[in-house]
## 1
Amino acid sequence: MRMLKALKNLFLNTGDPAKDSYLWNMIQSILFAVQSAVLLMVINRTNGLDDAGVFSIAYAIASLIYYIGEFGVRKYQVTDVEEKSSFCDYHTHRIASCLVALIAGIGYAANGYIQGQYSAYKFQIIVLVCAIKVLEAYCDVYFARFQQKGRLDVSSKASAYRITVPMVACMLALILTHDLLASVLIWLAVTVLSILTSFILVAPEFGKIEVRLDMSRFITITRECIPLFAGSFLLLYIGNAPKYAIDAFLDDKAQACFNFIFMPVFAIGMLANFIFNPILVRLAEEWNKGNIKEFRRIVIRQMLVIGGITLLAVTVALTIGCPVLGAIFGADLSGNRFSLTILMVGGGMLALANFFTVVVTVVRGQKHLLAGYILGALTARLLSGYFVRTYGVPGASLFYTFLMTLISLIFAVVFMLCVRKGIRQMDIKKDAS
């Protein structure tokens, strides 16, 4: 009990919530971004490229399953500053979406096993990693609640703890046993324990944890977030399309090598998220107050930050990127400089697309994003196999960057149109009053 009380105090106590929010959001963003990379590095060094490839595709599939569980609700919940829906409504909705996500993950892996694409071993790894990601999706409803209440520091501390403890347990198990299946089982078990001793421990300070179905509000949340869910799901599918094509047409070793050079893409997104995640509530407040000049200033500043981060990543990729990644993962990546550089540009485009998703949600124009996601997903479905079959890993890298550029351009246009429409509506209300 003393340990639990100490943990709770660690999560809740802060001298300066605003300052700690930036610091801890940076820490948890880094941990979230490097989680799969660190595990992949340990797996490759302890078990070899084949197991690294199995884990890579399992993590890619599980990431899609995560977005089914999260259902695009976090951004909507955080920016619901007037609390039109209660925490109970969001919590009940999240339990339902997570159950659907778990069923979908098991179903996908089972289909691959039945079709002969996956061995029993690969099937089990995919199911377990999917279960872990479903638990992470459940945690997200608490993360959003704390942030909605102005305590991003609490969300970030709990998230950092929840990521670190299971990851360390999994790595230690890998080093000691060299058994990927057993290690992932330990990862799952410790994830459950870390959730109980972090998010659920702190949550009662921000509202009662209960499950109560209000069908009208359940339908409202679902209806409002369907575009966000479809967008997040399709964007991740689009981003992972080269990996799925590699899974279908190349081998597990090629999958592992592509994922090694793909990892820095997450660094760009992580740094961009570190900048804009703490300003989500402020963006919503400035927009709701009709302070368009300040709203635009924040948006332009964030776009410049993303551009600067991308330029830095490209410079690193052209110089020391492949030697450094090769040393980290214990693999020869010397022939992948072109692929790595192209992927860094794609990472910048992904960060830009994610940012436009956020700001379009703030102005409540998220339903207009769906057409862009659908176009990107269709393009990915039709062309990813050709690029991978014809050009291998370089083709996968080039196609990824093409897809991300297409999506970010479409979202930029949607954002400008939504802002223009919102300003017109504000002017009409002012004239009427």
## 2
Amino acid sequence: MASDENAPGAQGGNPADNTGGAQPPQGDEGASYAPQGDQASYAPQGGQYTPQGQPDANTQQPQGQYTPQGQYTPQGQYTPQGQQAPQEQQAPQGQYAAQGQYSPQGQYTPQGQYTPQGQYAPQGGAYPAGAYGAAAPAAPNPNKKKIILISSIAGAVVVLLIIATVVINVINGSTYGPQAVVEKYLTTISAGNAKEANSLVKTGVKKEKAALLNNKILKEKSSRISDPKVTKTATEGDSARVAFSYKLDGTTYDGTLTLSNQGKQAVFFDDWKIDKPLLVDVSVYISQGTEATVNGVNVDFGEQGTLQAYPGVYKIGAPDSKWFEAEDQTVVAATGSKAGYQPAELNLAPTDALTEEVQNQLNAMIDKCAKETSKEVDENCDMDVTYVIGMSEVTKVERKVVEYPTVTVDDSGRSFETEGGEVKYTVTGKDYSGEKVTGDLEPRTYWTFYGDITIDGDKVVIEYW
């Protein structure tokens, strides 16, 4: 492009002369000037400034540099936004004579390119059409980083809380919920661990009545429940009802347990407790005494003949004694609609050993009485001699047992009687004349004893009528 020697700000002009150049237009009659936007244009003296920062092809532009804030600096330097060039470097009257500098007429020089963000393209370089220079990067905001970090931590905490809540709920249901509590209780009973079952749910049974609530009674697998399952769980507030089933002696039985929520355990988990233990009555009528064996263990059923036990199969037999024997009875103690509640009948029969023991005790009593020489002896012996025909006085009696009476124990083993037996008597005394006489009495051949039998542990106690 040819140079215009008359253009303001041309080479050779006087930089101190602030009168020869044209002034920037005033008001709306001149071109409009927008110092910061890339949408506005500045048109000096018929020329037009385009948003791309290119000079008008028809108008020669004065050499100079424009700053976005309306400031200019000497020697073609750009002042960053919001900063003022030093006073000694500012051209008088808004004009500067050096090449590539801003002229008072606001024309843009062809030597350099303008960028709206205060960047200057090198001389002779062309700025790509339709684009300004890239914006200067903004300084990082440390507060923004802190906010992002805090937000990330808060988000992570929320996620962890959600996960923890889910985990707690899962553990509550699988380990501490009503269903889990009942499952553990039934599994413990089915394993024969009565001691642990007693600790899981307090039985409320006195020690002397808890003879069936021990591991020995449930020692055999065949006597225990099997395949326990929870079939339904209903929870309402702090109360729950759990239905279950189990197998016993080839039959499936059902039942229900109620639970109450006692609060929290280990801070987070529910504390469900079974309200009442899973116990059933085992009743037995015993023909003799109150003792019997249950699954091989000697047990005292007491006067009422009833004890509580966990659901199971119980084989009831004669007490652990040599005095009685009985046919074993089986009781299936269960719950639900299929359960039966008939008491067992244990008919104890005396053994030969019991009869022999009673006989021995009777013989011993007779022998003791027979050794007495007085007219009167133990009334149970029935061997007194108080009066003899033809004798006015009896001073001595000798007794000799020829045959002991035979003992018979009744079917219940509670009593006995005897028959037979023979005893001879020799008496010494005075006749009516005062003479000493000795003679034999007619032997006694019918000798009967009656009495009750009581078993006290291993001892047989006889009480004569």
## 3
Amino acid sequence: MNLETTGSALNEDNSHFFYTRADQPATVETVDALVDQYAGTQVKVLLFSPNSMRTSYGSRVWDPIWRGYDPEGPDDQPLLESLDPDRRAGARRWIHTAWAFDRAGIDVYARWIERCRTHGIAPWLSMRMNDIHAVDDVRSFMHSEFWREHPEYRRVPYRFTGWADRAFDYGHEAVRDYHFRLIEELAERYDFDGLELDWMRFGFHFRPGHEAEGAELLTAFTDRTRRLLDHWESRRGHRIRLGARVPSRPATALGLGMDAVTWARKGLIDWLVVTPFWATAEPDMPVELWRELLRGTGVKLCAGLELLLRPCPEVKPQTNSLETVRGAAVSLLYRGADRIYLFNYMDAQTTLDEPDEYPRLLREIGEPAAMAKEPRRHVLTFSDTWAVGEPRAAALPAEVTKGGWQAFRLHIGPKPERGAAWVVLAFDPAGDVEGAAVAVRLNGELCGAAEPVELDKPRPEAPAWRYRIPLDALHAGYNVVELQAPSELTVTWAELTIA
């Protein structure tokens, strides 16, 4: 139960800065300002992603994002012509800005690393190990020539049913060597505190049915990386840590070829981020199980929080609010995570809906005692990443028969000492059941009568109802919500709100 001040980690992706600073001068002041906003906040580690399939710096071993770009050419130049016309100008912001900094002689990643150290923030690089954005468009400006020229290296060459089919297959030695060359360049070029291998961009690295042998290959690859960093440690004169991002549940991670527990037990990694992929934040990750599996390794366990939130795969995602982030963060830290890791929580473009909430998030997330005193929401979501053929589970939507019962389990972290708490539910309007007709219990104790409630975002599409919880009925950790309905209905949203 971690209630100590831990600080947070934040991932700056490979394109956000360049998209959002396209109208600013290509100067060191523009670069420094990105880091400066995190000084004095709970952000203790900044991770900068230098690549997708291409790099956002002038790489010698991979294609930079501006390869094939004509800065004087039109928006429909060959590099961009496969895009819809209304997307070309936006893509060009990324390409041109990265190109302009390079031409100005400014290596933004080297500058960010230096600037982090002036503020006492640990600078890391986060390498995306298999980024497959936009692979439905083979001609996209984002793709490397290596990927385009070698369809035989794709994970599922015999079909295309989704982006993951066109990921690189790490079963090929040529694929592993190609990616290792970028690691070698990053280690030589940049003096970082740590390198993260981001296996969750996009999480599928082997042919279906070959994940077990793939796990051995990724362990060997991780060992090779660790030995390279050991060499650079002696050159740099300081510890260089190695981290990894993997799926939220151990069985799924292993089923996809990511044997993170073996990496930890072999002493290959220093920290591990367990996380959903993208579709929703996952407040109910099995942190306790991961801690037990990592016992004695000394590996720091980070709980990854995605920006989006939704209760089930069928509905449109919404952006987390500060209150839902608080709820997830305080719960995950209470369960034993060493640090919260924020992914897609950048200062613009992909960020919280309310601009004034972002500075508050930076000051709060990573300070459990402070978060526990503020309003927080604990929303029931689902796991969005599964190994091939693994049964998928989601608690919602949930059917309730006439006169029948349904139950949900939500983790809240520490029990509040004072204040108020509610069960919040929403039902499919097609069931034509008013919330007032539904009886709700928490941990066996009857809750108050239903009250209609207008939730701030994120919120259900249907009207929401809240039921006051007797505060003594709340437990630290997991709480069980039970409900009984007078007729058939479908539950589409469930949360515990603490104020």
## 4
Amino acid sequence: MARLLIVDDEPDAQRLIGLVRQRARYKPLYAKDGFRALELVEPERPDPVILDRMLPGMGGFEVLEAMRQRPS
């Protein structure tokens, strides 16, 4: 089953997106901030990522840039 990483600091948004994606046969993974998202990228290797732009601590664009700079 493909893994989907949902990065959002709003629990309700995470649940709603996760429910929709489970029906599309994705295993949802959740992160409430960019730092946790980056921790999950290596071991889980999610297929798509849904990323909120306005996250606490590290914004969505910063997270995206950090993901792009990783060799894998």
